[in-house]
Amino acid sequence: MENIALIESFSEFKDDKLIDRVMLMAILEEVFRSTLKKRFGSDDNFDIIINPDKGDLEIWRNRVVVADGEVEDENSEISLEEARRIEPDFEVGEDVSEEVKLIDLGRRSILALRQNLISKIHEHDNTNIYKQFKDLEGELYNAEVHHIRHRAIILLDDEGNEIIMPKDKQIPSDFFRKGENVRGIIESVELKGNKPAIIMSRTSPLFLEKLFESEIPEVFDGLITVKKVVRIPGEKAKVAVDSYDDRIDPVGACVGMKGSRIHGIVRELGNENIDVINFTNNLQLYITRALSPAKITSIKIDDENKTAEVMLKPEEVSKAIGRGGHNIRLAGQLTGYEIDVFREGVEEDVELSEFSDEIEDWVIAEFSKIGLDTAKSILEQDVEDLVRRTDLEEETIADVMRILREEFE
Hints:
CATH class of the largest domain: Alpha Beta
CATH topology of the largest domain: N Utilization Substance Protein A, Chain:P, domain 4
Main location: cytoplasm
Strand order of the largest sheet: 7-6-5-8-9
InterPro entries: KH_dom, KH_dom-like_a/b, KH_NusA_2nd, KH_sf_prok-type, NA-bd_OB-fold, NusA_N_sf, TF_NusA, TF_NusA_bacterial
Mean pLDDT: 85
Largest sheet: 5 strands, antiparallel
Protein name: Transcription termination/antitermination protein NusA
Structural class: alpha+beta
Keywords: Cytoplasm, RNA-binding, Transcription, Transcription antitermination, Transcription regulation, Transcription termination
Subcellular location: Cytoplasm
């Protein structure tokens, strides 16, 4: 009964860790063998008998009887005199099995056993959590905000598992309160030491793809395929979709009547502007669709260098480039081609960099950020619109326009 009582005291926390008794007994054997090695130098001559049903464990030490005074290894050999105290008819050369009571190991060894057992169970628990979440990589997951830090949000799921969402994995407009439920994808799972580090992301393109699967039945059922997703989190995204069924309009099905289907996804992403386009293997048509809402006059494609020169009417240029250059950048990422925009009917233009002796470099850089890198591309813009789209003062923009006009006059 001593062993049972001790094992029960060791295993009092097993229910909290959701570990079954059979696994507990297996861990116990591993822990006891480790203790026996430290205490006796070897565990090879020990039998550990486990009875999971009773929750009992027996330890037996096997030794060979040798003549008195000839014991060389006290762990594997026993003198004839000592053996006959156990059983009076033992003879030299016979095997003696003697039960080792846990209590006989000493208080210090028992405390070490308990600590080692706790450590092993935590290790087992962490391994199971790692495997569980490794299988969930790339999948949608819900968790509750537990703690808000400067560089990360700490989340807890229903089972109390800790999930981390770093600042750079949050959409810029995200604002969380403690106790709030958050949805994202499990982006990565790593073992750091013995503890799993589970990272959630809301900025990954895969998060948007999984939202399409979750919110649009035809995508979930495989009738519509999401071919590619590119994002500037919180700002703009482009999603190329396709269907093998000619009767289905993939764009219409994803957007829904008056945007009813995609509205929930847009709201989830902090009002991220989502363009859904029909995928096609016709590269010219694909680039044309990728640059929507701009209307393209003509395209010249260089397959070797993966570049495309796009000709547009002057009034379409700003649409193709988009606010902050987002539209043209995402179109390039979606198609895999670097897209250069040219204005139709413009015979002569001057690169903005050529005015560096009159216009400061940081001002030129501000215009470049929104895709304006020539003199005429700036002169075609409205001053108020440029103030809104850049970090430049109205007076600075007016001075730049004056310098550029003088060039053409």
